[in-house]
Amino acid sequence: MDITLDSNVLVYAFVPPIHKNKKMREEWKDLHGKAKKIYEDIVEEKHRLILPFAVIVEVASVISMLTGKEEYGKDAALEIEDSAMMVLFDSDLKDRALDYAVKIKAGGFDNLIAITSILYGTTLITNDKPFYDKLAPFSDEYQFKVTFFRNLNIDALKL
Description:
By secondary structure, the protein is of the alpha/beta class.
């Protein structure tokens, strides 16, 4: 199955639980395990990852910030790029991006993620609830699937 992962899901895949608050750390642990499983399935070629380049840049930045290690962010970004079946650049999306962007009305990077999923018919997985809520009404019309990561039952997931 073809999937598009939001940067927040990829960050959970690469960064183990580091939150100081015990409750938040336990929640992160659960999300980390699910995200890591999805990413491992991509590496094992059970799924095909299609991403806009902006996601890779954002993941590198966030992982570097969370860990305090620039090399962790760069290494994760390079690994994601290598594991992706397709990485799209803005020029790959520009012809149809405006038509979707003005209807969806999401933020900058979010528009690129949504448009990638729409154009390639992927399952988009995000842990950003406002983004999910914004996209869900368009899934039938644009023939793509959007899933809210936090509520995802990884065992029942038929990716």
